[in-house]
Amino acid sequence: MKPLIQKLTETFSPSGYETAIREAIRREVEPLADEIRIDPLGSLIVRKGTKNQNGKRIMIAAHMDEIGLMVTHIDENGFVRFTGIGGIRPQVLTGSRVRFVNGAAGVIGVERLTDLTKAPTLEQCFIDVGATSKKDCPVKVGDVCGFERPFLDLDKRLVAKAMDDRIGCAVAIEALRALQDTPHELYFVFTTQEEVGVRGATASAFGVDPDVGLAVDVTATGDTPKSSKMEVSLGKGPAVKVKDAGMLADPRVVDWMIRTAEKAKIPYQREVLEGGSTDARAIQLTRAGVPAGCLSIPCRYVHTPSEMVDYDDVQNAVRLLTALLSHPFDL
Ligand code: CO
Ligand code: ZN
Q1: How far is the CA of 217 from the centre of ligand 2 (A)?
Q2: Are the C-beta atoms of 299 and 220 separated by less than 8 Å?
Q3: For residue 197, what pLDDT is reported?
Q4: Which CATH number fits domain 2-66+161-326: 3.40.1280.10, 3.40.630.10, 3.10.180.10, 3.30.70.260?
Q5: pTM over 0.85
Q6: Percentage of the chain with pLDDT > 70?
Q7: How far is the C-alpha of 271 from the C-alpha of 302, rounded, in Å?
Q8: Phi, psi of 105 (to 5 degrees)
Q9: How many CB atoms neighbour CB 272 within 10 A?
Q10: Alpha-helical segments (H) within 218-284
Q11: Nearest listed ligand to the Cα of residue 191
Q12: d(CA 303, ligand 1 centre) in Å
């Protein structure tokens, strides 16, 4: 799976500008799908199987957008000011390199700080794209960029920008590849604009109208020095979400996921995440409501240019997702 993960994480597609990643994913899923369509908000919808009398219509959502920056102002000397797209952490910006969707690149600088004990604010940061004036600046107001950082293979652990949520996309693609027969009508949806408030999934969930929903996304961990208290670690298996800041996972979905993991002898962790949410929230609240849950891949340093996952967790997430979607079940 590593070449696929590298390809997906090294593609630049901040929220709202998912064309490049959608094309990359489309090339992977085309031979595996019964039907493919793109909905009006740009999400890629891949159907596999038809519903038999024991089956359900299931939406599996992995978001393909990534956090990024958008140009708000360019000064006389060609320095670029910006706003965040999604949850940008100013303390990780200084020295970071960025790549614009139009191909231009730059490095992030910061104004002189008077109080070195405090992280700079977004307003104190700027992008230096190598311009000498407003005239020769290769970007304009409204242009968007993502972090520029190559994929890093540390053998058991993998590091990349946009692991959130290209790793979920990779898991969904590999589960689609591994699926033999299914009694279900499966809609793998690679969603847009998750990082700005689960917007793509809100629209696509309404369109798909599923019986059950599952998001595949990253979750935080509590296993680094003086981290926040959280009972999720890298390497202990994919996590079954019980709660995050935007959703109480349906207990019947949680039971189904845990039952399936135990039966297939796949390690798993129970997850309570105190900040953040996923596309599962959008699925749960669509139309008259849908039982929904989330299969999470533990990830360190979320929303930095170097997000880290464990390769065993990733492969076990593929196994668990494949097992969940292969057999009939009752909630
Ligand atoms: Co995110
Ligand atoms: Zn995410």
Answers
A1: 5
A2: yes
A3: 97
A4: 3.40.630.10
A5: yes
A6: 100
A7: 16
A8: -130, 170
A9: 14
A10: 251-263, 279-284
A11: 2
A12: 6
Q: How far apart are CA 60 and CA 82, in angstroms?
A: 33
Judging by beta carbons within 10 Å of its beta carbon (0-12, 13-18, 19+), is residue 323 exposed, middle or buried?
middle
List, for residues 55-75, the tens digit of each pLDDT value: 999 999 999 999 999 999 999
pLDDT at residue number 119: 87
- Closest ligand to C-alpha of residue 84 is 1
Give the contacts of 280 (CB within 8 A, at least 6 positions apart). 61, 213, 214, 215, 217, 241, 247, 249, 292, 293, 294
Please say if 194 is a catalytic residue. Answer: yes
Catalytic residue among 18, 28, 194, 195: 194
Q: What is the pLDDT of residues 177-201, one digit of tens each?
A: 999 989 999 999 999 999 999 999 9
Taking the CB of residue 326, how many other CB atoms lie within 10 A of it?
18
Ligand with an atom nearest the CA of residue 165:
2
What pLDDT shows up at residue 116? Answer: 86
What is the pairing mode between strands 125-128 and 105-110? antiparallel
Label residue 278 exposed, middle or buried (CB < 10 Å: 0-12, 13-18, 19+). buried
> For position 178, what pLDDT does the model report?
97
User: How remote is the CA of residue 288 from the centroid of ligand 2, in Å?
Assistant: 25
Report residues of the chain scoring pLDDT below 70: none
| Å from CA of 165 to ligand 1 middle | 7
Which one of 2.40.30.40, 3.40.47.10, 3.40.50.300, 1.10.3720.10 gives the CATH number of domain 68-147? 2.40.30.40
The residue extents of the domains of the chain are: 2-66+161-326, 68-147
How many angstroms is it from 120 CA to the middle of ligand 1? 21
How far is ligand 2, taken at its centre, from the CA of residue 299, in Å? 10
Those residues whose beta carbon sits under 5 angstroms from the ion ligand 1 are 164
Ligand nearest to the CA of 63: 2
- pLDDT at residue 122 in the model: 94
Q: CA neighbours within 13 Å on the CB side: how many for 273?
A: 29
| CA torsion, ordered 205, 187, 249, 227, to nearest 10 deg | -100
